[in-house]
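Problem: given the chain below (264 residues), write out its structure.
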Amino acid sequence: MDNLFLLETLPFSNEFVLDVIPRYWHLRETLHQGNIPKRELTFTESHEVFNDLENYILKEQWKVDVLEVPEWDVGFNNDLENWLKFVWLTKEYLSKGFINPVCVHYNPRIRKNVIHPGGCRQQVLNLFHNNSIHAIYFNTGGVRPKWLKKMKKVSVESLIAQGWGINLVADHGSLIPHLLKDLDSIVVGKKQTQIMIQKNLSNFKFTCNRKIDILSPWQTKDRRKARFKCNIIRGNFEENIVKAAACMFNNIEYSDREIEVLKR
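Solution.
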């Protein structure tokens, strides 16, 4: 997915962005806010978040003391931070939903709508969410999908006034807006999640109707010792493992048509 659109943002301030956009956005290119049907979005491979879980467990990142991490959210230790962010966002989503909309733009190379930034949030939505997704959408090149008329046009000025930071990426023959908000909460969330996981795993066992190799240190056949009962019903096995692990690490119950994660 990373090869299908550029990621590097231009070093512009919000003030400069306001000056540049009217001159360089194409006719009919605008921002809209509202709900987009999930089927109209493309998501990164769920195998990526499974790899994050594998790296976190196999490299014993769950043992890392948060005080030993010199800097967060700058790629210092992705084996630690990627999984922590997914677990944290899973709890946020399952407890109250995402407060802020995701950022979506049309990618003419693949003729699909992609979520970026927000790579981890899109994985949570892909695995746990079934309905339309609240988004801020940039219609690259002026495309007009049928559902766009149900969304509300929003200005860059109004988004900045709401606390959004707006970066621009030169791609697809345009300047693609990357919207970011509440960044400070990410580092706090990851630190708190690491501490919570360490506490939960210190005395943790679960049973499951399928053997889960990556979680074998905590899987047991003794129901008396188990804190959780996991029942994998159908669907993608790796995706179900990710959902089960994220919920159990958060010490919360969850169920859908594919999996049940219940406290004993």
